[in-house]
Each structure stands twice: as structure tokens, then as C-alpha cells.
Amino acid sequence: MRHLVYCILRARPRWRGQLPAGVAGAAVSLVTAAELAAAVSRVSEKGVGNLLCAAPAGPSRQKAPDPFFRRVAHATAHADVIAALSADRTVLPIRYGCLLSSSAQVRELLRTRRAEFAALLDELDGCVEMGVRVLLPGPGRPVTKRQSQTMKPGSGTAYLAGRSAAYARRDAGHESVAATVAALRRTFDRLSVQSRASGADVGDKLLVSLYFLIRREHVSAFRREFRRLQAQYTQSLLLSGPWAPYNFVPSQAPEAMR
């Protein structure tokens, strides 16, 4: 049997009550070593290759669910376990799909990387993650080489002027986006320990995601500040959280356990 890892936490205080069900309904247990614990569920060797898209066990006359929806269901179940465990304690969430060969290997991981994991747990102790997303007009893009080749013939001066105007619109757009993001970060930074931002193109718009690491006791204040800001902004704002601190755990932690 292989072990699917959900998150790492301190072994104390011990979890009281029933642990939530894991991916595909599997039982979740805590493997402990060196004062740390890893939440895991067991996966059969046969099921490892189909972990991301395996159909639910048992006979069925119905058409098997689409693999995409099975993957979503499994990833959601993985996140639900992390959310349950992080409700009242600090955890280091692990990327979905991390498999170790045995409980002995899980314990070895906890022992060999105890100092690293303990330091991260200390750094994130008592904190949760809140997310703010805003949809902004995308900055203008300059004329591409292919587009320039299809432009109607004209003077070189007119062509260069057109390209210059396109770059000016793009730069102005970037400045506007930067100013909005900076204003949002200033609003919430007083309540946060750390913050991070990322952006992604959505058609002709830009979706900016802001992540804030805050103390648990500041969640209500954060929500009030968001509602106040939401009433002032014409852009679409979306609030999420509190979550486990996904965006504040170094990527090398889960990568090293894949």
C-alpha cells in the first residue's frame, strides 16, 4: 500500500474525534515521528496509477463519470481534509498527488526534515490565508509582427507613430494595474503578516490574485475591511478564505515528497 500525503502538522495536541474521509472515501490517519505528524490515506498499488482519474469502486450500470470530474472530486476531497485539519491548528498543506511507499518512509521524511518543517510551523503558527481577487481591464498590447504585416501600406512615420501609441497604451495600462494592486495591498497589509500577488490574463482582462497571511483573530476585521472596500470599487472583487497557508509554504517542501 502507498500513502497519499495531505499535510504536515505538529503531533501535539493530538487530534480528538474522527478524522475526515479522504480521497475516494479512504480513511485518513496520522503518522507521527519526531514530534510531527503527517495526515495520510492508504492507496493500493493497483490504484496508484489511476489516482487522479480512477472511477469509484464497485459495480455500476451507469456510465462512468468523466475523468475530469473525477480528478476535480479527488482534488476537492484532498483539500477538504486539509481544511478540516487546519480549522484549529497550523498545518503545512502538501500538493495533491504526493505519494510515499510506506508509513516507514513517511516517518523517515518527518525525521530527516524535522528542523525545516518545525521552522515553517513556527513561522506560520496561528495564521491562515485570505485571498482577494480583482478583475481589471487588461493593459494594452503592442502591435505584433504578424499584425504589422497585415496593416495597410502607409508612410513609415505613420506606422512608427501607431506602434508608439500602442506601447504607450500598454505602459499606461500597466501603471493603472500596478496602482490598483498597490492600493489593495496597502489596505490589507496592516492586518497581514505577509502578502503575495499574481496575475493571469482572462480574455482582454487581467485577473489579479492577492494572498494575505493573517492571524486567525483578524479574520473578522479582514472581512469588514473587504466589505468596506467592495462598496468603493467599481471593479469586481472576490474574497476567499480562511484557508491553510497554501501560498506561504515554499514549493520545495511538497516537491521533495512527490
Description:
The protein is 39% helix and 27% strand. The protein is an alpha+beta fold and 258 residues long. The chain has 2 domains: 2-125; 128-246, ACT domain (Alpha-Beta Plaits, 2-Layer Sandwich). The strands form 2 sheets. Strands 1, 2, 3, 4 and 5 form a 5-stranded antiparallel sheet that branches. Strands 7-8-6-9 form a 4-stranded antiparallel sheet, with helices on one face. The longest helix is centred in the C-terminal third of the chain and has 34 residues, at 156-189.
**Biggest beta-sheet profile:** 5 strands, antiparallel
Number of strands: 9
Shape: globular
**Mean pLDDT level:** 78
Helix and strand run: EEEHHEEHHEHHEEHEH
Helix content: 25-40%
Radius of gyration: 24 Å
| Class by alpha and beta content | alpha+beta
The gist of it:
This protein has 258 residues and is of the alpha+beta class. Helix content is 39%, strand content 27%. The strands form two sheets. Strands 1, 2, 3, 4 and 5 form a five-stranded antiparallel sheet that branches.
